[in-house]
Amino acid sequence: MLEGCTPWPEKFQRRYREAGYWEDITLWRMFEESAAEFPDHVALVFEDQRITYRELESRINRLAVKLVEMGLQDRDRVIFQLANTPELVYTFYALMKIGVIPVMALPAHRFTEISHFAKHADAVGYLIPDKVRDFDFRDLANDVAAAVSSVQHIIVAGEANDGQASITDLIGSGSDDSVPDDQASKDLGDPSDVALMLLSGGTTALPKLIPRTHNDYVYNSRQHRDLAEVDATTVFLALLPMAHNYNLACPGLLTTLDCGGRVVIATSLNAEKVFPLIEKEGATIVPAAVPLITKWLTSGMAEKYDLSSIKTMMNGGAKLAPELRQRVRETFGCTFQDSFGTGEGLINVTRLDDDDDVILHSSGRPISPGDEMKIVDENGHEVSDGKKGELICRGPYTIRGYYRSPKNNATAFTEDGFYHTGDLVSRRDGNLYVEGRIKDLINRGGEKISIDEVENHILANGKIENVCIVAMPDPQYGEKACAFVRLKENMDITFDELSAFLLGRDIAKFKLPERLEIIENFPLSPAGKILRRELRRMIEDTLEAEGKIAVSREIDA
């Protein structure tokens, strides 16, 4: 395995192979087998493009050849920040084919995050779109390359600047029916080695790198086939970033293309554009998240289109309220499926044939019989069913350690290999119920924001003496960040001023606090620690008084 990664112990590797969990094939081989079985099926739809499996495979092969000729080698790392376009698919599979490891960045990441990933991974390349709305990624890429000496290749989906390479030019205009040459036909990946690196939710200053092997990720992807009923007739609507675990393999792009199904890439999240696309393409699986579902349900647009093709609407990333789950079923006439898990591994889903109580209230059960879960108290002792505790887990697709992060590994993993998720859950009749988080994160509609990271940026402002960020409830996103700030003497700061300051520090825009509260003194515990729960209660009271939320609170025991 790649140096800096923690392999599964030998006895677990044997166990997972004997059980049939690990098939010893690469992600490229998984696609290649599907392309051979369904060459004339449409694999991708994007705007006016309809790309068959034969055409897709040919373009991937031609790109793979050019990437090797550029000097990319087996086990090299590259930062992968491509937008949802066919180029993302071509490039991802080309990297899988030649054994290059992508670090799967998200569209909102900027210099602070990208440069950190590149340094940590010794990345030799950076793959980007040319421009998305008003942001030019080519300029960002030049800044990253100037700051991180290992980055030698900037590869662009779209128009490349001087010193950068265009994916379109690399693929060329060769025939999509051509037989790939020997160089392109090589599959350099080792099924037991790292295939890609996902990003942690970022409970420390910046996200950690999650090394996923071909074996565990093929298994992760294929376990969703039956649970989401993915097959050759599936039309999967790709709305959210396909570089994210949820839309990449849960079930996502990889599962759909493994089965001969069709991936329809949306260019907008608005109901006015999404619903006509569902009607036109006959989308059967629509994976979404709390903000999207909330917008769609309140848009009044569903009755204007024929959305009867939808078999399943999924929710991932954050908990969706039971009443909204019921409205999904009523509005779209489909089954609702909840997905709850981590990039580190464990995924739980509700089953399509579960009873109403489970579908409407729980986050389901693990996708694998090989998943081992415990719910433990603060002392590491297992709690009884119905009691709250931290979820810890291990299994055939849950990592044993972060990449090059021994300090984090010492606290995130137990000696016998269980991963501390930081999620507070309870379990009833085998199903998990999400109760909150132990770690300090803001979950903004599925995007995880590290409190520590943003607080450190705010403290760099010369006007601010101290800051504490807490989650405030939001009807659309579930949570948003509220910054409580104590100012230095005779200082003043506005919300717009703070936002501009943070943007100037090149952090992702979604991480910015969305409310500023100036406070004279923080509520403190006897030990002198800031009482975040009191601040959360204060902002809830304020929002309730403003008529923006209705808060239902349990009486403290």
User: Which structural class do the helices and strands define?
Assistant: alpha/beta
How many strand segments? 27
- Write down the CATH class of the domain at 52-189: Alpha Beta
Distance between the termini: 49 Å
**Gyration radius over CA:** 23 Å
Biggest beta sheet summary: 5 strands, parallel
Mean pLDDT: 93
Net shape: globular
In short:
The protein is an alpha/beta fold and 557 residues long. Among the domains are: 52-189, Rossmann fold, CATH 3.40.50.980; 364-437, Roll (Luciferase, domain 3); 443-545, GMP Synthetase, Chain A, domain 3 (2-Layer Sandwich).
List the helices and strands and how they pair.
Elements: H1 10-18, H2 27-37, E1 42-46, E2 49-52, H3 53-70, E3 77-80, H4 86-98, E4 101-104, H5 111-121, E5 125-129, E6 131-132, E7 135-136, H6 137-147, E8 153-157, E9 165-166, H7 167-171, H8 182-185, E10 194-199, E11 209-213, H9 214-227, E12 235-238, H10 245-249, H11 252-258, E13 262-265, H12 271-281, E14 285-288, H13 290-298, E15 312-316, H14 322-332, E16 335-341, E17 347-349, H15 356-361, E18 365-366, E19 372-376, E20 389-394, H16 406-412, E21 419-428, E22 431-437, E23 441-444, E24 447-450, H17 451-458, E25 464-474, E26 478-487, H18 495-503, E27 515-518, H19 532-545
Parallel strand pairs: 1-13, 3-4, 3-5, 5-8, 8-9, 12-13, 14-15, 15-16, 26-27
Antiparallel strand pairs: 1-2, 6-7, 10-11, 16-17, 17-18, 19-20, 20-21, 21-22, 23-24, 25-26
